[in-house]
Amino acid sequence: MRGHIILAAALAVTGAGQAVADDLVRVKTDKTVNAAMDALQAAVEGAGATVFARVDHAAGAQKVEMELDDAQVLIFGNPKLGTPVMQADPLAGLFLPLKVLAYADGDGQVWLAYEDPQDMLDDLDVAADLPAIGKMQGALGKLTAKAAGE
């Protein structure tokens, strides 16, 4: 009986870890991190959104004499999409503007990753069917696919 309880607990923990990963969308690319981020930034700007920041985590690590595989985050947004979400719940400002991470995994494979806006905002008082959320999902999908070269 005790073995069944331990197995059930282990499965529950594993399932919880997978649920967190399920909130993330990863897009594979053959580009370098820098090239993928350049392409993403161009796609975002070409779509009329505002780029607020580009953070180079590996460069930050080098400044403190540490090593980190290539990883950059692009922070961007469009008030036409973000404002209705923040009107629904001002706490959405903790999650907006949107962010996409370009990183190289342990095998050197480069990925673009972002959190699905629906999942990101699901604990807030934002209606799941708010049109802006679907538009954010669509924009992130298109922008990352374009940046990845798909």
From TrEMBL:
<dbReference type="InterPro" id="IPR005180">
    <property type="entry name" value="DUF302"/>
</dbReference>
<protein>
    <submittedName>
        <fullName>DUF302 domain-containing protein</fullName>
    </submittedName>
</protein>
<dbReference type="InterPro" id="IPR035923">
    <property type="entry name" value="TT1751-like_sf"/>
</dbReference>
<dbReference type="Pfam" id="PF03625">
    <property type="entry name" value="DUF302"/>
</dbReference>
<feature type="domain" description="DUF302">
    <location>
        <begin position="55"/>
        <end position="117"/>
    </location>
</feature>
<keyword id="KW-0732">Signal</keyword>
<feature type="signal peptide">
    <location>
        <begin position="1"/>
        <end position="21"/>
    </location>
</feature>
